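Morning. Coffee machine broken again, so started the prediction first thing and wrote up yesterday's gels while waiting. Chain of 142 residues, entered below exactly as on the submission form.
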Amino acid sequence: MSHDQQYPHPSEPSAASVQLNHTAVFASDRRLSAEFIATILGLKVGAPFGPFLPVDLGNGVTLDYYEKRDEPIQSQHYAFLVPEAQFHTMIARLEAVGVTYYADPSHTEPGRINRLFGGHGAYFADPDGHNMEIMTRPYVRP
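Came back before lunch.
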């Protein structure tokens, strides 16, 4: 199909019926990375599913950690909308494991949080350098 052709849409779903189910997260050590994010977010690592090690986010979405040992991991960004009441607990967990958090995605403001959109937010790196974000308010988009 060329770029100028349209994809067929016999019965288009409404936007409300489309949901993210899972995403693969590449890791050099799937167990280490899955346990890291599960610890910070207060979640549990699930049973292996084929080559994947899932972390259930509790809303029907899983992060499926997939081990890639023979090539470098390209950093990705993952943002988590978290309850305001749990935000500072997550920050304390980062501090407890010695991981620096930042107010900005470029990691130039260490040990600080942001207050975007009337909430709180912070960025931190996981064991493979993925740029993780926790935030208590979703971004306001135009």
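The longest strand covers residues 22-27. Going to sketch it on the whiteboard this afternoon.
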